[in-house]
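User: My collaborator sent over this chain with a note saying "see what the structure looks like." That's all I know about it. Can you take a look?
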Amino acid sequence: MIILEDISLRRGAKLLMQGASATLQPGQKIALIGANGAGKSSLFALLMGHLSSDSGDIRGMSSLRVAHMAQELESSDETALNFVLGGDAEVFRLTQEIAKVEAAENYERAAYLYQELETVDGYSAPRRAEQLLLGLGFNQTELNNAVTDFSGGWRVRLNLARALMTPSDVLLLDEPTNHLDLDTMLWLQLWLMRYDGTLVMISHDRDFIDAICERTFSLEQGQLVSYRGGYSDFELQRAERMAQQQAQVARQQREREHIEDFVRRFRAKASKAKQAQSRIKALERMETVAPAHADSPFYFQFPEPGKSSDPLLSIDEMTLGYGEETVLSHVSFSLHPGDRIGLLGKNGAGKSTLLKGLTGVLPAQSGRRVSGAHLRIGYFDQQQLEVLDLEASPLLHLQRLRPNAREQVIFDFLGGFNFKGERAKEVIGPFSGGEKARLALAMVVWQDPNVLILDEPT
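Assistant: Without extra context I'll predict from the sequence alone. Here is the result:
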């Protein structure tokens, strides 16, 4: 059992948690949700011992093996298979040592190490690592490719496979479904449902949470509020709790007004003075029930697209690829005002390639791309986060895009994306990944597009 008791945590000037408490039972599968910047990743860092709380205690973690999916993208010359095998540190250490002693012809030591390897189920490790990679969408021919050969999204999958390979009592996953196609998400869902340890998962995918999690922890107003079930259950229970709290506030307000009216009418009367004094004391003892308060949602809207041509964009017999390699051939279609188009396909099928071809970022190998007279494309993909200036504020990012815009107009716009007041002036380096993604989306909207091309916007 893991117990978090009265945890308070501040990052810089921001108070993330104050007096937060929760209990994690062995084998539970828990979703951790909350607004961007609420402290979800910081809570993971606390559980791993990478951060210390300002006050409070975490009990029950010292004897547990913890596996965590790293968010940073490893640069390594190791093969994909060996990188994932490295998740089981003991097996990897033994295999490396066996190779050394056999090279030195120390066969007595090698025999002892082979016995150790059998004890930790090391003989099955390469097969288990291979199954993880294949389940996460890698081809058999890619297993011996170097980690550096893979793009960012595939390296995220390698990090996930390495975390799943790590023997653990507690598994911490931060947005594990990012960069996964539907088939791979289903495979991961089934794998996690079979996992015997305690799972804590940060995710914004309600269907994924509903399928796996039996409890949801929500970071609200610096507290960890526990709900039974997945995300859909959380929504129902939170609405019910807030309605009950609001009704309690209304009842208390009516009671307070009734007592205050009695005191006002009878305080000066000698026959009622004692009763009035007693009720004054009752008012003083009355604990105020706080009004129900949800974390402030944010709202934004796209500006009217203005003048548009029809079609906005056409491609005709377009072939797209990289260098000598062709990914898509003979693609033809048009985009018209008001179209809403979803693009599905397995990873590696060419979805991002097609979107880059539509934007013109990737020149066609053959065929035509014809832009309408008033085409303005807003293009969002996860790689945009890598070009954000970590030393600049949200305000400065938008000023660079439109230098003549009035500062108050920019503040009002950023407020719609929940960068309010001083937050709009802070450098974005310490922002959470979700907040940076929200800023990247705000920059797209700020450029007043009439065609939106979104690659994994959520």
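A starting point for your reply to your collaborator: The mean pLDDT is 86.
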